[in-house]
Write a structure and sequence with these properties.
- The complex is a heterodimer of chains A (about 300) and B (about 240).
- Chain A is an alpha+beta fold and about 300 residues long.
- Chain A folds into 2 domains: about 190 residues, no CATH class; about 100 residues, Alpha-Beta Plaits, CATH 3.30.70.
- In chain A, helix 1 crosses helix 2, helix 1 packs across helix 8 and helix 8 runs antiparallel to helix 9.
- The longest helix of chain A is centred in the middle third of the chain and has 43 residues.
- Chain B has about 240 residues and is of the alpha/beta class.
- Chain B has 7 helices and 10 strands.
- In chain B, the strands form 2 sheets. A 6-stranded mixed sheet of chain B has the order 6-7-8-3-9-10, sandwiched between helices. Chain B has a 4-stranded antiparallel sheet with strand order 2-1-4-5, covered by helices on one side.
- In chain B, helix 3 packs across helix 4.
- The mean pLDDT of chain B is about 90.
- The chains are: A alpha+beta (about 300), B alpha/beta (about 240).
- At the A-B interface, helix 1, helix 7 and helix 8 of A face helix 2 and helix 3 of B.
Chain lengths: ~300, ~240
């Protein structure tokens, strides 16, 4: 295709957009809203998924060693626990470190509860047991609670129940989010299709003349496809702004969030990746929708 | 240039719009296809530019079988012919110049070539002085001249006109007939479907008369109705 033809096609497409200004604006806005919700949903889903993926490493069984146990005995105990099937990693948290951690959290939260200890350390040594499979929690916890096998372990805390609830909630959020995203994706595709359909109707005279004088079908379709891609891209650009705003808000919120689990959010997708994905998705959707619409509504003379 | 053998076109299975029609048109000929509304004139033209499917028989344009044509080849066929309609079919949002230029631009022809060819063809139909006007600012006859310019701008070997004077007064019809005649004299094969007695009798060219989808008369230098006899006598609606 020559440069001049390409220029002509772009010219025709922009002529369509300008002449059907209101309709184009409507479709761009709809695409923007849908893509913004879609983009935010996908981003949040991504975060939820990341959070869920991180859980087997995050949640662990805490086994508190009796006060009488010496540090070297505790180290032997650690090696023994490590051999239990389903255990990923065991780390020994000395009581001094546990106290320091507790005081840090206390001060960070702005309270002064630990000041009341005045130098005393009521905390025992602790074994943090990470599991290779979160489903093994209950079994491993039961073994650790067995006084015959582990007489030196006084108390075992597992976060199974809390973890179960948390995972169920995130799973629900993920599933609902995916359903909503899918619906929005379909709605967006439909809106673009409808816009192209209206354009075909508005341009039926031009299209008929093109067909009669023997314009190639590519030439007839190209301005319509360009228009579809334009609508998809323009909507996505607006959506990008909205999504980046949402991401900033969510990140700030997550930063302020105090949770009972000392988990750290894994690094999020970089904004440029999100922008790239949204633009690509918008363009692809515009292209596919307009192609479908052309196939359905473009009549041959 | 055009070779039609035993053409049959059906819109539904028991009613043929064109039946058992054979017709040869030589390159450079001027043919009027006449007959009352519903005789199959428009259908015949539509078959030639592949807007209508052939039910049976063969239709060849410039040696190419139109009936068996791959749909992807249709644009190629249509570049060989200009088509003119009763209602002009100009683009209302474009000027006279742009309307004619559009037909070239959609074929991928560049601006420079467009600027060279459009004024020449508009000059030929006498519309260059109105090149910046919009179709709504033109009379019917002027619009039809622009439509003819558009049909001829790509220099097609064949010009098809379907009732080109159907909406025009007698004087204007004659102007249009003369423009078609002039195009023919420069070598274009012209086929005009019409029931306009005036232009047929004025130009005195080959006349193919149709009735109920069949050819009932084919006469060189013909007139609209042969004196004293009815060409339709003895023809019955074919089923």
């Amino acid at each position: 295709m020559s440069l001049s033809s390409f220029g002509f096609l772009i010219e025709e497409a922009s002529r369509n957009v300008r002449r059907n200004g209101l309709m184009s604006a409507a479709s761009i806005t709809t695409v923007a809203v849908a893509m913004a919700v879609l983009g935010s949903a996908v981003f949040l889903l991504h975060r939820v998924q990341q959070f869920m993926d991180a859980q087997p490493r995050q949640f662990e069984i805490a086994a508190f060693v009796t006060m009488e146990t010496s540090r070297s005995k505790a180290a032997q105990l650690k090696a023994k626990v490590q051999r239990i099937p389903g255990v990923y990693r065991v780390s020994l948290v000395p009581r001094e470190a546990a106290l320091r951690q507790m005081m840090d959290e206390d001060h960070k939260a702005g309270t002064r509860i630990t000041d009341a200890l005045v130098g005393a350390n009521p905390l025992p040594d602790r074994l943090d047991v990470q599991l290779s499979d979160p489903k093994a929690t209950r079994r491993v916890a039961a073994i650790l609670r067995d006084k015959d096998k582990f007489p030196a372990i006084e108390h075992v805390r597992d976060d199974r129940e809390t973890l179960d609830k948390l995972l169920a909630t995130t799973r629900l959020i993920r599933n609902v989010g995916m359903a909503v995203a899918l619906l929005l994706f379909l709605a967006t595709a439909f809106v673009i299709q409808n816009t192209i359909r209206l354009t075909i109707f508005a341009r039926r005279r031009e299209i008929r003349v093109m067909q009669l004088v023997g314009a190639s079908s590519g030439f007839i379709r190209m301005p319509l496809v360009i228009e579809g891609v334009f609508c998809g891209l323009a909507g996505s650009i607006i959506a990008c702004g909205l999504v980046l705003l949402v991401i900033r808000q969510v990140s700030q919120f997550a930063g302020r969030l105090q949770t009972p689990f000392a988990f750290t959010m894994p690094a999020a997708m970089s904004p440029s990746v999100i922008v790239g994905l949204l633009l690509a998705a918008g363009a692809a959707m515009g292209w596919v929708s307009s192609t479908l619409s052309i196939r359905r509504y473009l009549r041959r003379v | 240039m055009i070779d039609i053998q035993n053409l049959r076109v059906e819109y539904d299975s028991n009613r043929a719009a064109v039946a058992d029609l054979s017709l040869q048109v030589q390159s450079g000929e001027f043919v009027f296809v006449i007959g009352p509304t519903g005789a199959g004139k428009s259908t015949l033209l539509k078959v030639l530019y592949r807007a209508e499917q052939v039910t049976s028989g063969s239709v060849k344009v410039d040696g190419v079988d139109v009936g068996a044509m791959d749909p992807r080849k249709v644009p190629e066929l249509r570049r060989k012919m200009g088509v003119v309609f009763q209602d002009y079919e100009l683009l209302p949002t474009r000027t006279v110049f742009e309307n004619v230029a559009f037909a070239l631009r959609v074929l991928g022809i560049g601006r420079r070539e467009v600027r060279r060819r459009v004024p020449a063809v508009l000059e030929m139909v006498g519309m260059m002085r109105r090149c910046d006007a919009y179709p709504s600012q033109l009379s019917g006859g002027e619009q039809q001249r622009v439509a003819i310019a558009r049909a001829l701008v790509n220099d097609p070997p064949i010009l098809l006109a379907d009732e080109p004077t159907g909406n025009l007064d007698p004087d204007t019809s004659l102007v249009i007939a003369q423009i078609l005649d002039a195009a023919n004299k420069r070598g274009t094969t012209v086929m005009v479907a019409t029931h306009d007695k005036l232009i047929v009798d004025e130009l005195r060219r080959r006349v193919v008369e149709m009735a109920y989808g069949r050819k009932v008369r084919d006469e060189a230098d013909g007139v609209y109705l042969p004196s004293g006899e009815c060409a339709m006598a003895g023809v019955h609606e074919p089923l």
